[in-house]
Amino acid sequence: MLKGIIDPHVNDGLMKKTVVETGIIVCSGRWYYTASYLHNVAEELFASWQDEAYFFAAKELLLEKEKDLILSYSEDLKSICKAIYSYMANLNVAYPPGKLFEAQIEALLKEKLSAQQAQELLSSISIPLQHNTHKQEQIDLICATDIAEHVKRYSHIYSRYGKLVYYTIKEARTLQKKLIEESFIEKVEREEKALRRAIAEAKMLLGKKAYLIDILQFLVFYRTQRTDMINLSFLRAAPLVKELARTQGISYEEALYCTDEELFGNIPPLGVIRERMDACTYMIDNGRLSCLSGKEHWQIRELLEKNEGTHQELLGRSACAGRAIGSAKIIRSPEDHKKIELGDILIASMTTPDMVPVMQLAAAFVTDEGGVTCHAAIISREMKKPCVIGTKHATKVFKDGDKVEVDANKGVVKKIQ
User: Fold this and answer.
1) What is the DSSP letter of 95?
2) Confidence band of 18 (pLDDT split at 50, 70, 90)
3) Is 290 helix (H, G, I), strand (E, B) or coil?
4) What's phi and psi for 162, nearest 5 deg?
């Protein structure tokens, strides 16, 4: 998947000037970009998309890449890999420019409204009107008469980057009962009516710049849609990967820790693969992709995490106001989801669609990363739960079981002694 980022033409048509990434690290599942790259991509997308026609053309290109990815499912594994590489452009553009567009829209709203009114309106329109997979699944589930067929259709919603977690009929029936009891459809209809009014108000206030609201809506929708699509593609590719792994004498799980060149050519020694499975770092450096494990991985991880865990109180940004006190639970991988119990404080580098079931249990969310268009911010507003984003180090500062206070009215998260 990371090979797509190496291609210097991956973002052609999405921004007017090419921005090439020279350094990315994915260490123990956590992504680290060079600050200059994120800044340059954000600035270039922000500048390019001030041209309304260019933005809508770029959006169509992104949707075309999505269609190509879906069509590749019926082809061979090499074709799917090629489509995934091309789709990396979609993964790469939805995050960086968000804060710049938020700031621009907020500044324009402040010309017509008070600072508080502008902030409240911006927050209310930072929820996607278009349904992401997890919400559409819940809407469809309420009306589903064939639960088995429904589960098959949405079988990918809990899987992530090739690690298969299958949706079960039992889970679907339990969720269906809960949603009906909560009058979920009526709730969605009320919220969408209010959202449409807010979007219309914001567009009216922005006048000729109303298309900026379309950009914001696209960004908040596509932040989640892009990962939904990549997870679906991995699920569709799984049978082909399993068959290739069988011919190479390794398991499907072991195959996930091989590059495509290794899978289609020479498989590394099993000792190397299993070392990667234990812990590894993927690195892009000047157009070259490498995988480091063992001592090299731990040295890089120690360097990245150095001096991150020395505070008792962190300041972030409020994504959804409110206050909650609970037991901290740090989520670093899908295996950690089972730790979350009712009333816990969910702390993660960032949240992803597969976390939605455990987010429903949590009293509040805290993230290291993100702006008001990030997944945690969007879901917190939908669930009306306190959320503080962009704390930078929450996953390092707090430990499982710490008693934590989340004051999302002030953007403060602190350990209670």
Assistant:
1) S
2) confident
3) strand
4) 90, -15
The β-bridge partners of 320 are 387
pTM of the predicted structure, to 2 decimals: 0.83
Q: Which residue matches tokens 């939805």? A: 94
Distance CA 66, CA 64 (A): 5
Domain boundaries, the chain: 133-205, 313-415
Would you call 415 exposed, middle or buried from its count of C-beta atoms within 10 A (0-12, 13-18, 19+)?
middle
> Please, what is the Cα angle at 26 between 20 and 32, to 5 degrees?
60
Report CA-CA distances (Å) from 140 to 134, 225, 353: 10, 17, 17
Q: Which of 56, 58, 200 is nearest to 129 (CA)?
A: 200
Judge contact between 375 and 223, C-beta under 8 A: yes
Report how far residue 18's alpha carbon sits from residue 9's, in angstroms, rounded to the nearest whole number. 7
Largest CA distance in the chain: 66
Is residue 380 very low, low, confident or very high in pLDDT (cuts 50, 70, 90)?
A: very high
Record: fold of 313-415? Glucose Oxidase; domain 1 (3.50.30)
